[in-house]
Amino acid sequence: MAIEEMILLNMTFDRHDLDQVLFTLKDSKYFYPQPASKIVNNVKGVHALQEDNAYTKLLDRLIQVASDMKLDLNKDLAPDKTLNLDQTDQYLSDLEAQIKNIKDVQDQLITEKDENEKTLEILTRLTLSDVDLDHLLNCQYVKARFGRFHRQNLDKIKYYEGRPFIFNKLGEDRQYVYCCYIVTNSLLLEVDNIFKALGFEEIVIPSFVHGKVNDAKKELEEEVHAMTEYILRMDQKMTILRETHKVDLLKLYSTGLFLQRIESFKVFVVDFQSKCAIYGFIPKRMIEEFKDMLKHINGMEYQELPADILDHQQVVAPTVVHNAKIVRPFEMLSKVKQSDKIDTTIAIAVLYYAVFIIFLGDLGVGAILALLGLLMRKKKMGNLFLSLGVAALLGGLIYGDVFYTISLYPAIALPLSTVYKLVDGIILLIVGTFTIGAFKKMYLQDSTMEKVLSMKGICGLIIVYALLVYFGCVYEAHINLPIMPFAIVIVACLVFVLAKSILKKKAE
């Protein structure tokens, strides 16, 4: 249980089996395919297989259609492994045409309804109910305009007092002032420019509105009501269209996503015309299981290569760890890097389990950590919290404590107070993590001198542990120890570190 031993596996197969191979590889958890562009490396007559973006375009169209129809897309339905793009294109084109017809009618109705509602707002604010709109709007020598502008521009009207127009404020709301101005035809352009500067938005009275204000309002209300009903009918028509095609669209979406993912694997395929090849890293222990997964591909040829054979082409094996489930949550603490040759996950797990059981064990704390772990179970941190929570619960069962203050029953007790026990536990976690990290760095050092005579090596560890032993004995165990032996050890280690640094500089 450590860092996996990887090999570079070369698979060669007939071109007509490409789809079957890609369908199988998508489910592999242990195979790490490498980009074909790195493998071919400008070899004549050999190139990486090109990815077709037809499925990406298809998915873009599906997303737009679903948005227009208010359909929530998901990939719950099982995908098909093949798709006739020509038939699909025709199907979507017909559906898009139907959607466009419905939306065009609906958009036109909404626009007209909005205009009529603005007109109705104007008429509602007219107090002169005996005004005949036909007479007012069809005057031969004067022109009446209805509309609105923002409230902050109302005070600016006073600057135009004395100009040849009649201004009538009809009312206002939180945002707009509704008004009407009347002007002779000869001065219409000048006055229009004045009101345009104020941000005036004209509201045109529809041609079907006639007669007195009250009669006009009644006509408009009936027209708005009819339009509202017709817009609802368009919504119902869109709903029927959505429900009719829902299953087909969801199936198409699931299939499109599946085939797009398969298509994306083509960047790993080396094209030899009649043959294809895929190179990828795989743990040595998984080779037979992997080959068995592809046994249905006739004529498949395998070549097992050393993991570092193509390092010069930047084809580098990933660092993969394999640990038992009980210690796997601690992989996020051990943080194995690409350049590492050792996995400290087991050591980290043993340290944390031991500390949380022996020193930090508590039923209340364990329950909280376990609950956090369950709530965050889909994240890596959740598994870590759950493991630590279980360890703390085991310790809590041994000690019978809840939140380190309540004792439920007589149980085993360490010869330490609660405070000292918690402090010691935290110190052990810090020191233990530091020690494991130090040994890891020493292992990765190529120079024996660096492993021994450096602050990151054995000398550094001796200094840290000398200080810990001395302060632990004096301040916690209350044992009076002479400081001189510890001082000699620390000074000696520092001298060795300094001497190593001097020798290293001279060698350079």
Automatic annotation (TrEMBL):
Assigned keywords, A-Z: Coiled coil, Membrane, Transmembrane, Transmembrane helix
Superkingdom to which the source organism belongs: Bacteria
Coiled coil regions in record: 85-115
UniProt keyword annotation of Coiled coil present: yes
Residue ranges crossing the lipid bilayer per the database entry: 350-372, 384-406, 418-437, 458-477, 483-503
Protein name: V-type ATP synthase subunit I
Species whose genome carries this gene: Massilimicrobiota timonensis
